[in-house]
Every structure is written in structure tokens, then in C-alpha cells.
Amino acid sequence: MTRGPRPKDNAVRRNKHEHAQQLNSSATEGRALPAGLGIKTAGARRFWRTWATSPQAGKWIETDWAELEITTKLVDSLFQGDLKQAGEIRQRVAKWGATTEDRARLRMSIEDPQDEDETAGTEAAAVASSTDIDEELFRLLSE
């Protein structure tokens, strides 16, 4: 015998958050990296490209783009050897939903993963950009 009242036939979930976000998984067009930022490293350019085309960027307003510019300058500084910037960068990208845990905390979910055909093209681009980063890291470590 069970205890308590019988559950309703059509139970309604009551803890759904009113500000939960459902993002589209397709990459956004994003914005070009502003030349006035003076970014010198390939790692910072890759950071900008990754975030500017992320699903989160589709919902950004002007202040969010300004934060991306500031954070990209910090990433550029990090790739030039200023490791003190790592903690600040981590805090900033967490507010955008960088990791699965961050997105869960922000009640952010991403719709349908990309088709296998679409991911093949993006993997080739990722390999090309990672080669630039590998060369840059090798140069930094050789100094």
C-alpha cells in the first residue's frame, strides 16, 4: 500500500524557471574582430571567432559584445605570457555559459546537435586554426 494522496493523472512540472533559455545550435554569423583592438595572437583571434559564432551570441546585445572585446584583450594578454589573466577570463566566460555546468546553472540549453555532414566542414576549420595555435604555443615555449 502506498502512502499519501494519489498523483494527478496529468502532473505539471512546477519548478520550470521563467527565464530559461533555449538556444538554436546553429552557429550565428557573429561579428568580425575589430581591428582597433590590436589583437596580436592567433589564440585570441580563435577565442573571438569561437564566441562570436556561438549559439549564445545570437541573443547578445551591445554590452555583451563590449564584454567580449574586453575579454579578448585579456585572452591576448594571456597568450603573450601573462598567466594572471586566466582566473578573470574563466569568470567572464562562465557568465556566457562556457561549459555544460555553466549552462545548467544559467538554465540554458541548446537545441538539436548539428548533423554529421555539417560537422565535417567545421572539423577541417578547427584543425587549420589549431595548427596556428600549436605554432604559436611552440614559439612561446621556445623563448
Written overview of the protein:
With 143 residues, this protein is mostly helical. The chain is built from 5 helices and 2 strands. It has helices at 42-52, 62-79, 86-94, 100-105, 116-142, and strands at 21-23, 108-110. It has a two-stranded parallel ribbon with strand order 1-2. It is elongated, with a radius of gyration of 20 Å.
Strand order of the largest sheet: 1-2
Task: Estimate the mean pLDDT confidence.
Answer: 80
Supply the helix-strand structural class: mainly alpha
Q: Based on DSSP secondary structure assignment, what is the total number of beta strands?
A: 2
What level of helicity do the residues show? 40-55%
Strand content: under 5%
Helices, by number, come to 5
* Shape annotation: elongated
Largest sheet properties = 2 strands, parallel
Low-confidence stretches: none
Taking Cα atoms only, what radius of gyration do you get, to the nearest Å?
A: 20 Å
- What is the straight-line distance between the termini? 74 Å
Q: Give me the strand/helix succession.
A: EHHHHEH
Per-chain topology:
Elements: E1 21-23, H1 42-52, H2 62-79, H3 86-94, H4 100-105, E2 108-110, H5 116-142
Parallel strand pairs: 1-2
Helix pairs in contact: 1-2, 2-3
Key descriptive features of the protein:
50% helix, 143 residues, 5 helices, mainly alpha, two-stranded parallel sheet, 2 strands
In short:
With 143 residues, the protein is mainly alpha-helical.
